Amino acid sequence: MTLHIVNQSPYAGSALSDCLNALHPGDAVVLIEDGVYAVNDPRLSASADNSFCLGADAIARGVTVPESIETIDEARWVALCAEHNPIVSWFR
Amino acid sequence: MQFTLVIYGAPHASEGAATALRFARAVLASGHEIYRVFFYGDGIHNGSALAAPPQDEQDLLAQWQQLQQAHNLDLTLCIAAAQRRGVLSESEAKRLEKPAVNIAAGFTLAGLGQLAEAAALSDRVVTFGG
Amino acid sequence: MPRKSILAICRHAPYGNALAREGLEAILACAAMDQVPAVLLINDGVFLLLEQDAQQIGEKNLRRNLAALPMFGVETLHLCERSLRERGIDPAQLSLPGTELKLLQNPGAFIAGFDQVLSF
């Protein structure tokens, strides 16, 4: 199963929607950097079974992560990368 | 597990390289190995010895170099991307007749084949976009 | 070298930034190393297929780089059908000599089948 990494604000570009259009059942999505501004995007909860948000990036920006999304640290991010294959980054 | 990190962002311009540093530390702390860090596109600026960020900001170059020394990391700058953007080794500067050498200690210039090889020999490839 | 299945995803338009050009260069390098990647043009990456005259802006024509891929063993380009439709591009009007253009309705299932993905 694929791990998708999104680093762009959904208000700045299409990385999130492009990612969600390429989701396969069981895939996971990790929001990092400006991608954390997508935590409340209804398209994310509607399309992704497993969503994660890098905690440091959210706290750094003053973004509150809802309970529907698991807040993770870097170690858990690495573990998710080890559990999934391939890994796809959606950026810019 | 062997990880390869591919970095497209210039330091102090995009967040990608700083995020990749945090990820790299977590990879090593989790008992995995880093096969290679491949800097491509604007990411090659991470290997410039001439960056001089203000003292109250994080020094990404120094952090890469510390990590490289501690774990004998392979930090590879794509040579084609680096030539275009002006990060040169002594031999490249001589060959291209350029007036300065600015590749930082701990980094090496190599061809794109090193990205292909890393993709083939690593268990995971993670791209840090610009 | 062990053979891994590698997918290169091109999702950026040519010329606006270096990603499309440097992505194609990386694809050629993989193929030259006997690690022939599959190639998926998705989102703005489908714009690479348009007839173009980059000389007008002093650039090299990237469609020509795309057309060189079969010589390196990349004989199929996978295209996201949805991306074409969203951009008003009729797949029937697209062609690239020596290359099979394959339309994908479900890029997610396609991506999931690879060991490694290089994103450009």
Describe the structure.
Chain A is α/β, with parallel strands linked by helices and 92 residues long. Helix content of chain A is 33%, strand content 22%. Chain A has helices spanning 15-21, 42-47, 55-61, 74-83; strands spanning 3-6, 28-31, 50-54, 70-72, 87-90. Chain B contains five helices and five strands, in the order βαβαβααβαβ. Chain B has a five-stranded parallel β-sheet with strand order 4-3-2-1-5, sandwiched between helices. The mean pLDDT of chain B is 97. Chain C is an alpha/beta fold. Chain C has helices at 19-32, 62-68, 81-86, 107-111; strands at 6-10, 38-41, 76-80, 100-104, 116-119. A five-stranded parallel β-sheet of chain C has the order 4-3-2-1-5. In chain C, helix 2 (62-68) links the parallel strand 2 (38-41) and strand 3 (76-80). Chain C starts with 5 loop residues before the first strand and ends with a strand. The mean pLDDT of chain C is 96. The A-C interface holds A 1-2, 14, 18, 21-24, 27, 85-92 and C 7, 9, 11-12, 17, 19, 42-43, 80, 82, 106-109, 111-112, 114-117, 119. Chain C: It comes from Microbulbifer harenosus. Chain C: Its EC number is 2.8.1.-. Chain C: This is Sulfurtransferase complex subunit TusC.
Features:
heterotrimer, A: 92 residues, alpha/beta, Hypothetical Protein Ychn, Chain: A, 5-stranded parallel sheet, globular, C: alpha/beta, 5 strands, 19% strand, Sulfurtransferase complex subunit TusB (chain A), DsrEFH-like (chain A), Sulphur_relay_TusB/DsrH (chain A)
